[in-house]
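Thought: the user wants the 3D structure for the chain below. I'll pass the sequence to the structure tool as-is, report back what it returns, then summarize two notable features.
Action: structure_tool
Action Input:
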Amino acid sequence: MIIIINRLNQVNLLTKILVLIIGLILFVTILLTAFYSYMEVEMTEEEIGEQALQTAQMVANIPSIREGFSQASPEETIQPIAEEMRKLTGAEFIVIGNTEGIRYSHPDQDKLGKNMVGGDNDAALIDGESYVSRAEGSLGPSLRGKTPVWNYEGDIVGVVSVGYMIKDINATILSNIKKLILPSVIVLFVGTIGGLLLTRNIRGQLMGFEPHKITSLYRERNAILSAIHEGMIAVNEDGVIQLMNQSAEKLLSGKQKAFFNQPISKVLPELPLSSLIKNGQVCRNKQVEVNDRHIIFNMVPIYNQNQVRGAVLSFRDKTELKEIIDTLGEVRSYSEELRAQTHEYTNRLYVLSGMLQLGNFEEAIELIQKETQTVETQNKIVYDQISDKTIQAILLGKIGKASELKINFLIDDYSSLSEMADYIEPTNLITILGNVIDNALDAVRETENGTVQFFSTDIGHDYIFEVADNGVGIGKKDIHRIFHRRFSTKDKTTRGYGLAMVKETIENLNGRIEVKSNLAEGTIFTIFIPKQQAKKTG
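Observation:
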């Protein structure tokens, strides 16, 4: 059974369709022919039987026949009449006999006076019934109409049997059935031609691919679309969306089902796509802005028989490239900050060396004790209370930057933190804490005795970070806009992306960020990141 199924699977689709069509037509033709033949047999036998019975009844009611039974030689009167009626009606035989079955008429005169054959006269002679029977007589198997002959006194005096030979009936039936052969052959021929044309059309539509190949291509297409980081959208010649991948769904900030069968001009009104699709134009690396994101847009038309049948659009988010560059910039910044911190301590060592050479030992000891106390306090918190290496590096870098800018960067004594969960990437922490601390340092640059405070804890279900400054603060009208792209209270041509990246990164980690600020008093950013990654649904 398995071998048969495997062999059937190896047969191509067009052969299966053609065999199915021809087989179906052949089956229906044979079924209809069989049904018609059965009906033809039934109707022909019923018609001939009824004809035989009517002829028998008519003969039995002929006065000469009835009177002939009372004559001394009934066959002399009855035989000529019976033979004449046989020739007129086309019956094979008309046999008339008395109550004892003795023939008074028969197509073969030598059989007159002999007993009727068949044994089917009792119902007519005894019960007075008229009926059709099938029996084998002296001439062979026949279909007969039987009826009694009544005299004028109401007594049964004989029986009339009108018959048609079975072989003649079968010949008539076969002749009628043969008339179906030509229409059946024509139907089969037309069906075969139609099947061939249909399979050719299907072959063209499927481009010669078999179903298993189409299934494989469909799966591969879905896998490729899911793997492609770029947004992909396919539209028909009318600019209606037919296909899109998850990256495009994310870019459009919606769900795929909501965009299917929607005009692309409605979904992306920023792009003049309708005219481009109709003209079959190719677009390469065109920069546009969609949903406050910088997008690099490409479009290639789809042709079929030199006519535009649609287009494939690809979108690459330039904003993400900028975020990667900014993250790399943050890493480079930490390197520079650590280098600046090294430079700062080198200068202090030179000062310390000068003091010792001048003999100012007390001042040198005081400087050493002060630096030692500051370093020990910071190092104790950074190294002993905060275990995550990435956050240690971030804090050390920001301490060096704050020292270079003459800003007080304080780490709360009660700060503590274990290593971050594996699902939180180091780049996530660099983007979040790096930008928030940098914003705080920028906010206190022009502030006398500018101070930035950092606090962290992992008590509870979240990692909690708090960055506070005593800078100029944020106005109420701006506090809800600081996370919008390109919004900045400073130079708007080069800023406005840091906090937007912070919020997006936090939301991707299923966390949240809160802001409290008062003008001329300072700002506090509080960040909450879950310790466990939320399970994806859908």
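Final Answer: Structure generated. The domain at 360-530 is CATH 3.30.565.10 (Heat Shock Protein 90). The longest helix spans residues 13-60.
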